[in-house]
Amino acid sequence: MGRAFVYVILGGGVAAGYAALEFSKRGVPPGELCIISEEPVPPYERPALSKGFLLPEAPARLPSFHTCVGANEERLTPKWYKEHGIELVLNTRVKSADVRRKTLITATGETISFKILIIATGARALKLEEFGVEGSNAENVCYLRDLNDATRLVEVMQSRMAGNAVVIGGGYIGMECAASLVINGLKVTMVFPEAHCMARLFTPKIAEFYESYYEAKGVRFVKGNVLTSFENDSEGKIKGVILKDGTRLPADLVVVGIGIRPNTELFGGQLTLEKGGIKVNARMQTPSNASIYAIGDVATFPVKLFGSNRRLEHVDSARRSARHAVSAILSPDKTGEFDYLPFFYSRVFALSWQFYGDNVGEVAHFGDFAGGRFGAYWVDKGRLVGSFYEGGNREEYVVIAEATRVRPEVADLDELGRLGLEFAFRFARKEDPLPPPEVVAPVNASQGGDTSSVVVAGRPVYGWHASAGVLVAASIAGFAYWYGWRRRRW
Ligand SMILES: Cc1cc2nc3c(=O)[nH]c(=O)nc-3n(C[C@H](O)[C@H](O)[C@H](O)COP(=O)(O)OP(=O)(O)OC[C@H]3O[C@@H](n4cnc5c(N)ncnc54)[C@H](O)[C@@H]3O)c2cc1C
């Protein structure tokens, strides 16, 4: 038994959905494209699972958050795929791949062959067992990666109202789940080995703000500690977690968010792996096989801005890499190199932040931490490389994205911190071919000051590149703000 397609997308997550829309926009003929996914539903906006999906009132449910509503584009329902002649092979796990023969074999034994393969297998949640802790299979231990996980988490949460929840892991999944658990009326303790939450991104000062906010909502933090075992009841359910220092925490529900692992196994020994992902070039194409592309969380691609290859685990990267790959496949002569400004966001309780670029080098904090409108700039080798802002408006996110994209030189970190958003605004006004932003930065506006020692050489060598970059950054930030504003529940 077998089927053959010109294009096969392996994986049915965010990147697959955006790739499908791009194929359709570019007029792929009916019957040529197929998506194979282990999941039972067509691609959806995965970030909804830790936000609107977990709300106790009017929760987000499919079909409302199928891709590509997150980018204010068409909602691709099963009907849409049918109408566009795109074959959805759902509930189907691919168990082996032969890139030389251009075939995939599913768990049911079907062979699906392709001319062009787009690998969009994303990543899976790391299990406790990988760290030597048994117990993931207990009824009240939850992970959160896909719709099944989210549905299960809601069921367990609703059966433990007012109970004790322990969240293992202080990353964004842990933080977003903890907020949702509190909103659902559970008493939450977060346990993680680092000195503060979101340790891969937040500085201690930024983390302190969120931790205080969470504590005011009743969340307890146990830092510098790890789970070593569970305590079970007679039915095998977890009733307590035991930490490395011997502490016992009562638990009616445990949510584990300890990281992810890219799904690359099918291609081990066939394609080049780098930084945990499938290595691709700036067209999202594997260097060793021109018929194979990789996109989204599973792809390690050149981030021009950083001059290095990165594997990103962010929804915006999945969407944009997907579109770029399809463009490179269908319009090779008109498609340049993927030139991406990394962008990541999160929303918890009434808070909302965005981050652009890279968090390496020295940090300058700015803004009103007490008032919940603050940020940070990262400066590496004398240049601005990353920007974070909490509580911003559209213009503010646009300008920090612009500034990060252009990478201005920074001579004085203290002054950068004093200027805060004004740095990005002044820079944007100097460099930006767009009309000046309508809103003048409220932060530090009264502080005035001379920026000349901060921006030593604002305009980059390649002026055209900066201008294009500004436009791209502005569109990313504009979308990001729109997404945050319009889709608060996701
Ligand atoms: C709960 C949650 C909240 C998030 N929130 C945010 C956020 O706020 N901001 C942000 O920037 N990012 C967020 N992310 C990250 C973002 O969702 C991911 O970066 C994005 O989903 C990556 O898209 P992808 O298509 O590469 O992978 P995925 O969306 O994971 O899709 C991979 C697909 O491949 C399928 N698959 C894998 N292996 C096989 C196989 N062998 N056979 C068949 N099918 C297979 C999977 O079942 C899945 O359908 C969040 C992620 C999660 C889990």
Automatic annotation (TrEMBL):
<keyword id="KW-0274">FAD</keyword>
<feature type="domain" description="FAD/NAD(P)-binding">
    <location>
        <begin position="7"/>
        <end position="322"/>
    </location>
</feature>
<keyword id="KW-0560">Oxidoreductase</keyword>
<dbReference type="Pfam" id="PF21791">
    <property type="entry name" value="MDHAR3-like_C"/>
</dbReference>
<keyword id="KW-0472">Membrane</keyword>
<dbReference type="InterPro" id="IPR036188">
    <property type="entry name" value="FAD/NAD-bd_sf"/>
</dbReference>
<feature type="domain" description="Monodehydroascorbate reductase 3-like C-terminal">
    <location>
        <begin position="341"/>
        <end position="424"/>
    </location>
</feature>
<dbReference type="InterPro" id="IPR050446">
    <property type="entry name" value="FAD-oxidoreductase/Apoptosis"/>
</dbReference>
<comment type="similarity">
    <text>Belongs to the FAD-dependent oxidoreductase family.</text>
</comment>
<dbReference type="GO" id="GO:0005737">
    <property type="term" value="C:cytoplasm"/>
</dbReference>
<protein>
    <recommendedName>
        <fullName>monodehydroascorbate reductase (NADH)</fullName>
        <ecNumber>1.6.5.4</ecNumber>
    </recommendedName>
</protein>
<keyword id="KW-0285">Flavoprotein</keyword>
<dbReference type="InterPro" id="IPR023753">
    <property type="entry name" value="FAD/NAD-binding_dom"/>
</dbReference>
<keyword id="KW-0520">NAD</keyword>
<dbReference type="InterPro" id="IPR016156">
    <property type="entry name" value="FAD/NAD-linked_Rdtase_dimer_sf"/>
</dbReference>
<keyword id="KW-0812">Transmembrane</keyword>
<dbReference type="GO" id="GO:0016656">
    <property type="term" value="F:monodehydroascorbate reductase (NADH) activity"/>
</dbReference>
<keyword id="KW-0676">Redox-active center</keyword>
<feature type="transmembrane region" description="Helical">
    <location>
        <begin position="462"/>
        <end position="484"/>
    </location>
</feature>
<keyword id="KW-1133">Transmembrane helix</keyword>
<dbReference type="Pfam" id="PF07992">
    <property type="entry name" value="Pyr_redox_2"/>
</dbReference>
<dbReference type="InterPro" id="IPR048618">
    <property type="entry name" value="MDHAR3-like_C"/>
</dbReference>
